[in-house]
């Protein structure tokens, strides 16, 4: 097994890529990541340079993933799901036991009851 080529900066750039690819928006990704759109754009540019690939096609009104971007996005989504399952194996377990809630009747009727399903 050989060492990974990913370092902390590259992982941050991949995290940024995931946010942009999910929303197809630099601005929405910036809001999610608490960064400026410019910082998001710079991270994506660094990632593209380091990989030697174009990940997004810049359009007049928006962006879309290139074929390479689609391939990497699919691999990252799968990897993140596997990592999530390994880190939190009990997250998909069926709940068991009972929960007792006490709430003011108006809150229980107007707010809580519609959300129980």
Comma- or semicolon-separated keywords:
mainly alpha; Arc Repressor Mutant, subunit A
Walkthrough of the structure:
It contains five helices and two strands; from the N terminus they run αααββαα. With 117 residues, the chain is mainly alpha-helical. The protein has a domain at 8-88: Arc Repressor Mutant, subunit A (Orthogonal Bundle). The protein has a two-stranded antiparallel ribbon. α1 (8-23) packs across α3, α1 (8-23) crosses α4 and α2 packs across α3 (37-51). The longest helix has 21 residues, at 67-87. It is elongated, with a radius of gyration of 20 Å. The model has no long low-confidence stretch (mean pLDDT 88).
């Amino acid at each position: 097994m050989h060492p990974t080529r990913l370092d902390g900066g590259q992982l941050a750039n991949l995290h940024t890529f995931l946010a942009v690819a999910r929303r197809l928006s630099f601005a929405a990704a910036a809001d999610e990541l608490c960064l400026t759109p410019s910082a998001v754009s710079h991270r994506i540019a660094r990632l593209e340079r380091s990989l030697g690939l174009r990940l997004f096609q810049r359009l007049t009104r928006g962006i879309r993933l290139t074929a390479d971007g689609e391939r990497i996005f699919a691999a990252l989504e799968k990897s993140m799901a596997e990592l999530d399952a390994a880190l939190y194996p009990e997250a998909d377990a069926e709940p068991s036991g009972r929960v007792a809630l006490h709430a003011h009747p108006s809150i229980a009727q107007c707010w809580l009851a519609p959300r129980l399903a």
